[in-house]
């Protein structure tokens, strides 16, 4: 592998990581601690991630339990969750916060599947942008012969095709998870 395909592969790996992170934020009927990642709690004047303030457990598929290490942060965590766009009402028992995850309706599951499809398409576009940028760099490299440039472009295209297939496989898996009752 040349330096061009190595760099392209690294960038495409980052596209897959971003896709995985975006998929983890899509709310299914299952409790997933990653949906809390974007939520920040005002803790002594600092926006702090929930995972730095509390233990997050998933005792069953449709329930998440948040246990703050500092009990004084309980109300702040609850307010941050209510203010977020999760669409889940937290219940506070004075020690922990429980987040019940209701099963989505058929219509909502279809919406989530469409959302996943859009996220996957963004990843495909990012991968194709890496291909385009790499090909542009190859075209500008005057040290390479036409044959070498052609060979490199074919290698980059093969890499692109492989990564797009991986995106499709990840989408298929996530769609099946979303559509599961």
TrEMBL record:
Metal-binding keyword on record: no
Keyword annotations: Cytoplasm, Protein biosynthesis
Primary residence: cytoplasm
Region feature (Disordered): 132-152
Family matches, as CDD domains: RRF (cd00520)
GO molecular function, one term: ribosomal large subunit binding
A cellular component annotation (GO) from this entry: cytoplasm
Keyword Membrane in record: no
Compartments reported by the entry: Cytoplasm
Any one GO biological process: translational termination
Domain Ribosome recycling factor: 19-179
Primary role: Responsible for the release of ribosomes from messenger RNA at the termination of protein biosynthesis. May increase the efficiency of translation by recycling ribosomes from one round of translation to another.
Family to which the UniProt record says this protein belongs: Belongs to the RRF family.
Annotated protein name in UniProt: Ribosome-recycling factor
Protein's organism: Tractidigestivibacter scatoligenes (Olsenella scatoligenes)
């Amino acid at each position: 592998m040349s330096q061009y395909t190595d760099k392209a592969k690294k960038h495409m790996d980052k596209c897959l990581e971003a896709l995985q992170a975006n998929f983890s934020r899509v709310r299914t009927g299952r409790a997933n601690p990653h949906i809390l990642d974007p939520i920040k709690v005002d803790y002594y004047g600092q926006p702090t991630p929930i995972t730095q303030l509390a233990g997050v457990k998933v005792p069953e598929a449709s329930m998440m339990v948040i246990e703050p290490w500092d009990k004084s942060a309980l109300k702040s965590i609850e307010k941050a969750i209510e203010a977020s766009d999760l669409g889940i009402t937290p219940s506070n028992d004075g020690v922990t916060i429980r987040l019940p995850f209701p099963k989505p309706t058929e219509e909502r599951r279809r919406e989530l599947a469409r959302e996943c499809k859009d996220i996957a398409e963004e990843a495909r576009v990012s991968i194709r942008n890496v291909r385009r940028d790499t090909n542009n760099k190859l075209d500008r490299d005057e040290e390479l012969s036409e044959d070498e440039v052609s060979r490199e472009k074919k290698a980059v295209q093969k890499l692109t095709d492989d990564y797009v297939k991986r995106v499709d496989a990840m989408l298929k898996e996530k769609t099946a998870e979303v559509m599961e009752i």
